[in-house]
C-alpha cells in the first residue's frame, strides 16, 4: 500500500498507508486525535518528518511566539564556561605558564 501524507494543524505532518482505491481526504491525527487533511506531494518523495520539514515547521511555529527557555543551556567550553580541570595525574608534571 502506498504512503500518503497528512498534516495536522497542531502536530504537523505525518504519514499513513492506505489502499490506492480507498484514500480518505482527511484522517484522524495519531497524536492528538483531531482531523488532519491530506497533503498532496510527489509520490515517493514525502517530506513528512524529514529534518527539513521539521525545521520549516519549527520556524513557522516560533515566528510569532518563540519557544520559552526555562533553563540556562549547559556550556561545554568556550567563553564564560569554567575551565576544564584534568584529573589525569600526568598533567601535573606538565610545565606551568
Ligand atoms: Zn495532531
Structural summary, described in words:
By secondary structure, this protein is α+β, with helices and mostly antiparallel strands. It has a domain at 3-61: Rubrerythrin, domain 2 (Single Sheet), CATH 2.20.28. 11% of the residues lie in helices and 21% in strands. It has one helix and four strands; from the N terminus they run E-E-E-E-H. It has one helix spanning 51-61; strands at 3-8, 12-17, 26-28, 35-39. The protein has a four-stranded antiparallel beta sheet with strand order 2-1-4-3, with helices on one face. Strand 1 (3-8) and strand 2 form a beta hairpin. The chain starts with a strand and ends in a 36-residue tail after the last helix. The model has no long low-confidence stretch (mean pLDDT 83).
Amino acid at each position: 500500500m502506498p504512503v500518503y501524507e497528512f498534516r495536522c494543524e497542531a502536530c504537523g505532518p505525518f504519514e499513513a498507508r492506505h489502499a490506492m482505491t480507498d484514500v480518505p481526504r482527511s484522517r484522524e491525527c495519531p497524536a492528538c486525535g483531531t482531523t488532519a487533511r491530506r497533503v498532496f506531494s510527489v509520490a515517493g518523495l514525502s517530506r513528512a518528518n524529514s529534518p527539513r520539514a521539521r525545521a520549516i515547521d519549527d520556524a513557522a511555529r516560533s515566528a510569532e511566539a518563540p519557544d520559552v527557555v526555562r533553563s540556562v543551556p549547559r556550556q561545554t567550553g568556550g567563553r564564560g564556561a569554567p575551565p576544564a580541570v584534568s584529573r589525569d595525574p600526568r598533567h601535573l608534571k606538565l610545565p606551568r605558564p
